[in-house]
Amino acid sequence: MDKTFKQTIEELHGRIARNIEQAAMERIDRLTEGSTVAEATADISNESLRAAVMDILLYSHLCARLRALTPGTLTREQGNELLSYVRERIVPYTPYPKNRLPHQLD
Q: CA-to-CA distance for 89 and 70, rounded, in angstroms?
């Protein structure tokens, strides 16, 4: 593969990932204000971008809600088990595994 072509693809991939992450970060506060993920992303006209942002927001919201459960509702092991399931099944799109959200309860 031509190195220039490979670099171009990597740069494009990075730009797409940054656009998705930026769009998600711009909308995450709406969830704490009571909006649904669908409401928070309704203004995104590009269907692919909206779907990727929805994945990130739904994943983040679910993990945050699991972590916020009243102590004693779940044991640490139960919480980690649920978060592990979520992580394995519905991890949102990101080309960089290091950017994925933490999946363990502290």
A: 24
